Amino acid sequence: MHTADGSGELPGRLLAGDFPAVDLAGWRREVDRLLKGTPFDKAMLTTLAEGLRVQPLYTAVDAAGGLWGASLPGQAPFLRGVRTATTWPVPWLVAQELPLADAGQFNRALLHDLANGQSAVVVKLDVAGRRGLDAATASAPEVGRDGTALAGLDDLRGALAGVDLSACPLMLQAGAATLPVAAMVMSLAAERGTTAARLSGSWGCDPLALATDPEAPALAVDVMYDHAALLSKWAAAHAPGVRTLAVTDAPWHEAGADGVLSLGLALSGAIDTLRQMETRGLSPEDCAPRLAFQLSLGTDFFLEIARLRALRVLWSDVLAGAGVARPLTAAWVHARTGDRLLSNLDAQTNLLRTTTAAMAAACGGADSLHVTPWDALSAHPGEAGRRLARNLHLVLGHECRFGSVADPAGGAWYVEQLTREVGEGAWAVMQQIEQAGGLPAALRSGLVLRLVDAAHERRAARLARAQDVRVGVNRFATKPDLQPARPEIDPVWLDERRRAAASVPVAMHPADPRGDAGAQLAALGLAALRGATLGTLTAALGGDTTGGLCAPWPSLPGRRDAAPFEDLVGRVARLAARAPAAGRIHCCCLGEAVRTAPRLDFARSSLAVGGFAVDAGAFHTEAASAVAEARAAGAAVVMLVGLDEVYPGLGVDVAKHLSSGQRPPLLMAAGRPGEATAALQGVGVTRFLYLGSDLLAALHEIVDALGGDR
Questions:
Q1: SS3 333
Q2: Is residue 5 pLDDT above 80, yes or no?
Q3: Given this model, what pLDDT does residue 2 score?
Q4: Closest listed residue to residue 77, CA positions, set 427, 429, 430
Q5: Region 349-355: what's the mean pLDDT?
Q6: Is the pLDDT of residue 505 over 90?
């Protein structure tokens, strides 16, 4: 190897020989020496929320073998993805959702975004539509929430005006209304002279996931599988580029499941989909090219890469076991930055979390990606947030060049080993679900709910103790800036939507998955052309639009990581509005500034998590000056901040004087003072805050003691 000027070897080659070779045993001896007696496992190993142990160093010895061994990109079991080469900077679909309630607003935003980097059309219906309802049959709060309100074909025609359906993949997120909306898309394509063979995208829904939503769909699970089978048979014959089966991990992920559990449950859902389709005349080989996965991604960069890579291997193995030919086994994955990671507190920090998740999607080989805008929880999410989310794709591709490498994470020993551990853990979850009778049975028995709840409790405990960091939420919190609640729906607009959804009688039979798929879809399309609305078509297909249909198993609510901290900050804000002094905490600093500064930083940052206004004065070595300053601060809470050696003397004196005055403040101390604890408690110190404290519990206790509401 030579340098560019031909002068000889690269400097790295020359330097490599200047250092003695170090084996793993030698490295370990040096680390143990530097630890000076601290146990290696305690200091150097990290445990993830999934229970996986992360080593400080990985070598070629850790490279996985067997099923997880070396394979080239594009080769089964697709560990390294399906792309063997890249010819464009952003090889994944830029599939941004546009949750604009009005079809006209949606269309204007879509045309703008398609001209500025978006490469797929995502039509996400509002809550009412995803239930299979419309403005005439759903409750008012469901209309226009978290998606676009479509009454029928006229609205879809307006939403997709000016869009070349043959040029961009179409991704429908229509839930229980998937079959009627798909029929409307076919009618719209026919109007424009576009044949079904030129259509592409993902039009499926996950019936099991829909049935876990607190707002139950208007169709039974079996009926939604009938629709999926019918649509799949039509696509196989007429639209080979359209995927009509979907499996998502969103319900488990958003309810608190860790990365391994949610992946295992998604795999179980995919297996059940194969079973359901087989009973309706579709073999696993028929289903393989029709199925699309959706993975919700979190903030653990390497873990999320491993999940994407592991899913492809696991799905390849499942299909191979079902007799599907190897070339058809690559999982198609739509990645989505999870709503669970969004926060109303210091909302701009959502950019950090969504960027991390999006990078993982790019490195893990996602086929399409949605990045949630940082202001998605805002009462008025703006175009700037949408633009940043869309441009993040372009930055990752054009500037970071993640798309220029077939498998950016390939050969990284940590990622390879983590992929194996994640895959084996997810496979174990799938086996547990299978032993319980499959995913529907595990949902009915409550097993899934118990697994997810347990994972959520572990996750919540780690967040409460800041073992897992959420910037702006449980660490590095700034002045609270809670976003206002979403505004009420415009009653004039709602009335217009209800008029648009006026019922048109439809004479149809429920879908027959073994009947003529083309004829049944043509009948649906004809009904839509005659003015049938989503609610009408759902009822005609066997749905219950009166609200009487109940989910067959317990629902799973969404649980954002930041929500408990937002509740705490809200309590403090209401308390401070009623009694300003109760919203302030004074840090009374004792001892030497240089040595005590780290503890002061910890105290201030911990208290700021609750939204308290925290101030700190000078460092004191005499009780009188410290007491005078604390009283002058006028705060309802005083936290003593000093080293453990200072507390038995100076700390006890200061606390004694503060607790003996009129209207004494609530006294706390930073750290775990050991033998001085009893002495401090004896003079009025009631609480201690230290590294590893449950911040949520500790700060809620302070609000309780100050008379805050619940």
A1: strand
A2: no
A3: 34
A4: 427
A5: 96
A6: no
Average pLDDT over residues 22-28: 85
For the chain, what is the largest distance between any 2 Cα atoms, rounded to a whole number of angstroms?
Answer: 90
| Domains of the chain by start residue, with CATH | 11-44 (no CATH), 120-228+502-561 (no CATH), 244-459 (3.20.20.240), 564-705 (3.40.50.280)
Give yes or no for residue 17 having a pLDDT over 70. no
Q: pTM here? A: 0.93
d(CA 288, CA 399): 34
Strands 53-54 and 46-47, sheet pairing: antiparallel
- H or E stretch including 613? strand 613-620
Question: Which residues, in sequence order, are CB contacts of 350 under 8 Å at separation 6+?
Answer: 341, 342, 343, 372, 374, 375, 376
> CA torsion, points 331, 336, 339, 340, in degrees to nearest 10?
50
* Spatial separation of the C-alpha atoms in residues 595 and 186, rounded to whole Å: 72
- CB count, 10 Å around CB of 621? 11
Out of 82-86, 326-330, 440-444, 686-690, pick the least confident: 326-330
CB distance 287 to 273 below 8 Å = yes
Cα–Cα distance, 312 to 76 (Å, whole number) = 9
Are 230 and 520 in contact, with CB atoms under 8 Å apart?
A: yes
In this structure, are residues 346 and 337 in contact, taking their beta carbons and an 8 Å threshold? Answer: no
Q: What's the gap between Cα 522 and its chain centre? A: 38
Peptide bond before 77: cis, by omega within 30 degrees of 0? yes
According to the model, what pLDDT value does residue 9 have? Answer: 47
58 near 413, Cβ under 8 Å? yes
Hey, which of 3-12, 32-41, 167-176 has the most confident mean pLDDT?
167-176
551 close to 211: Cβ distance less than 8 angstroms: yes
User: Which amino acid makes up residue 316?
Assistant: S
The Cα 218–Cα 578 span in angstroms is 46
* Predicted confidence band of residue 100 (pLDDT cuts 50, 70, 90): very high
Region for residue 6 given its phi and psi (left: phi exceeds 0; alpha: psi -120 to 50; beta: otherwise): left
What string of DSSP letters covers 588-599?
EEES-HHHHHHH
Higher-confidence residue: 27 or 548?
Answer: 27
Distance from C-alpha of 576 to C-alpha of 407, rounded to nearest angstrom: 52
Separation of alpha carbons 329 and 271, rounded Å: 14
Residue 213, Cβ neighbours under 10 Å: how many? 20
Identity of residue 36: K
Q: Which of 212-216, 345-349, 449-453 is most confident?
A: 449-453
pLDDT tens per residue across span 559-612: 999 999 999 999 999 999 999 999 999 999 999 999 999 999 999 999 999 999
pLDDT over 70 at 15, yes or no: no
Helical packing angle, 447-464 and 413-435, nearest 10°: 140
How far is 79 from 330, CA to CA, in rounded Å?
A: 9
Phi, psi (rounded to 5 degrees) for 258: -80, 175
Q: Are strands 245-248 and 170-173 parallel, antiparallel or unpaired?
A: unpaired
Tokens linked to 217: 């769909």
The dihedrals phi and psi of 235, each to the nearest 5 degrees, come to -65, -40
Contact 616, 587 (CB under 8 A): yes
Distance of CA 597 to the CA centre of its chain: 36
By the 8 A CB rule, do 394 and 90 touch? yes
Which run of H or of E encompasses 462? helix 447-464
Summarize the confidence of residues 75-81 as an average pLDDT: 87
| Rounded Cα gap, residues 211 and 270, in angstroms | 15
Distance of CA 651 to the CA centre of its chain: 45
Residue written as tokens 């990284």?
412
Using CA atoms in the order 232, 233, 236, 240, what is the torsion angle rounded to 10 degrees? -40
Which element (helix H / strand E) includes 312?
helix 301-321
Note the pLDDT tens digit of each residue in 149-180.
999 999 999 999 999 999 999 999 999 999 99
